[in-house]
Protein 1
Amino acid sequence: MELNGKEYQLIANYLAGECTDEEQRKVEQWIDQSQENKRQFQELKRIWQLSGDAVSSRDMEWNIEQEWNRLDSQISKEKLSSRSKNSDQKRYWSFRSSSIHSGTQKFIRIAAVFLVAALLGVLSYQGWYQPEQEGQEPVLRQISTENGQRANLTLADGTEVMLNADSELKIPTKFASDVREVQLDGEAYFNVSENKDKPFLVRSNGSLIRVLGTAFSVRAYPEDQQVQVVVEEGRVSFGQEEEHGGQKAILNRSELGTFDLATHTVATRTVEDIELYMSWRNGYLKFEKTQLKDVGTALERRYDVEVFFEAPSLKKLLLTAYLKSRSLRNVLDVIKTSLEIEYQLDENKVTFMK
């Protein structure tokens, strides 16, 4: 029996005791449908128990692509059959029979990582592996992070990506023959493997970044109203997507480019302190004359909290600080001292006060 990504996640939630009543009924009805289903559930339960407490969602960095490739390779070796729909059967899920073998300890560890990751929400695989056929649109895998989480992944071409909190990356199961293309919502750092014959493209909020091999960071959160690119090494072509024929610019090392979503214009400037844009990779936050409301948004992503302001005037206060502590309370103490304000921390809620 083959399970897809969403169904693995639902079973993981069931094993962790985090299902709704309806989801619990669906899982239990599927288990009772056949002896094969019961056998497979017991196997998944055993894998889940083997995973133990080795993985924590808080500030965890996952090498997602490596684990996916290992899992995908193992699935191919096990010769799992492709899914097919059976319209004559009325069931809650379209599960089909095949088998999952415990095989080796290596596969158990990989499967455990996959299951735990699904539970924790560190990533979401949407669309289980499907062979691509000639003339079809490429199959995309979606990798996403929640607040308080980051993810490391290495793509098939060797490109390294770090995905910041509250971000989403879509990558094809296989790059095209002439181009390597991904889609980003949120923030990510790319260290692109050089290939002069196969440019690397990042599409984000109507903008296009084109490189041959370089290192750069992209920020494209919806509330920013702009796409921001900072180049650490090499050169980057950056601007509006080609099909719209918009303005473009070439960015070199230590240069910042911004694409305004309203005017579709590109502005560039030299960056003196690149850590203002790259510090998040190490779990730090660095601000220079940044409004407290934007600092609050960064805190929400970094520490998975909700930030509130007792008075609207507090949102406009300007903070200059390098917040390197892993402790939220220590970070809040620095902000308190710097801006001469107070704060209240209640579980996962932070309130700034005069």
Note: The two ends are 60 Å apart (CA to CA).
Protein 2
Amino acid sequence: MMAKAGIASRRKCEELILQGKVKVNGKIVKELGFKVDSLRDAIEVNGEILEFSEKIHLVLNKPSGYLTSSSDSFGRAMVMDLINEETRVFPVGRLDKDTEGLLFFTNDGELANRLMHPKFGFKKTYIAEVKGCPEKRSMDKLRKGIELDDGRTYPADVKLIKEGKEKSVIEITISEGRKRQIRRMFKAIGHDVIKLKRVKYGPLSLEGLKLGQCRRLTDLEIQSLLKAVNSEQGKGLL
């Protein structure tokens, strides 16, 4: 927690704790790994109170036609145009301009890094409308992992929702975040994506959120999200 606040390196912070220069709620703490709540506890280092900015977590139901960007030299619509927050937040990952659906925003850099790191296997679910109807062997290729120009994908969960001669609807869940990955995966099996929407991001969903709407996460949603990346809500280590 002290290191995150920019006091010093983690090792130096541990030295300060052992030297008795850290207080929590007015009491000296010499226990390494002592848990604190940055929203409730007063943390004092060398007589100065640490200040932490409020952690903000938002979910947006992104419409098609918006860039996942904070600026654009061509004046095109951006997802930040739909965010009404005084505190600066940033999108975690991206949805391409033509993709709709769930986009998560936060000002918590550590959480963002965990969510985007492949080793945590954070799952993202999409509904894809594709041309034609993929055969079972093609779907199995997606399930096992398919070779793209930037390497083989991780295995995906794939489910045929609606079968049609001209177009079909497929639910696909992946645990990576490569550029235009879903579209490239379907193209690799010969079925271009007509329409794409992200409907789930880990434990988060679009339930009750209209297209273009944005809202803060509930406490329960935050707890579920942090649990998914092996964290603890509102807590950290000194």
Note: The chain has three domains: 10-52, 57-118+205-228, 123-201.
Protein 3
Amino acid sequence: MASFLDTAASATGQILSTVTRGLLDLVYPPRCLGCSARPESPDLPLCPRCLQSMERAPTMGVAARLDRLPTGQGLFDHALALWVFDKGGTLQSVQHAFKYGNRPRYGAALGRLMGSAYAEEAELPEGVVPIPLHRTRKLERGYNQAQMLAQGVADTLDRPLRDDLLSRPTPTRSQTDLSREERWRNVRDAFAATDEQCAGGHWLLVDDVLTTGSTAVAAGLTLIGAGADAVSLATLALARQ
């Protein structure tokens, strides 16, 4: 009963928040978060010029980051990050507005860009799996930013969104101020997957920012442990280190 009430309260809060945000956008139309120009679409927080100027994350850089974790070496069939994340840069403004500024609609548009980049480089998966949030964190935020991105990726790749495959039953600390070792200890047992649904598939994990790779690796190992044949990874950003 409590879970149902929590879910209903979260949904109601999200609806009210979305309506409020929509009214504010009518009064104060969205601006590009890079240069303050008017973007072509209110669902995309960057104008064409700023989109062109975003630094693409090198594929080898993503692989090298994951390889720093012994359990991450060779785990993913393919791993891609769309852009490089610099503190204080344009992408941080985009990510903070999307993740903390109640702009879930940015997710699908950004996810479509991720999906297009992935389709140019890798074999299509059977389904797209967002990194899940624990229930309490999702209630606090009102939505899962990875799921919003994953929906855009799934739409572009014409593959199903499989947000039922992976769950996060264990609450974890924020990763922001943790060291590499602390991040891995924090999330290594955080996820669970259903064996009969994961088995035999090639699944594309989606998240917003790849920093040390601990969260992605923990989630990927969980899917492999549940019988997945292969796991790939796509993130919006690769944190510069």
Note: Residues 2-27 form the longest helix (26 residues).
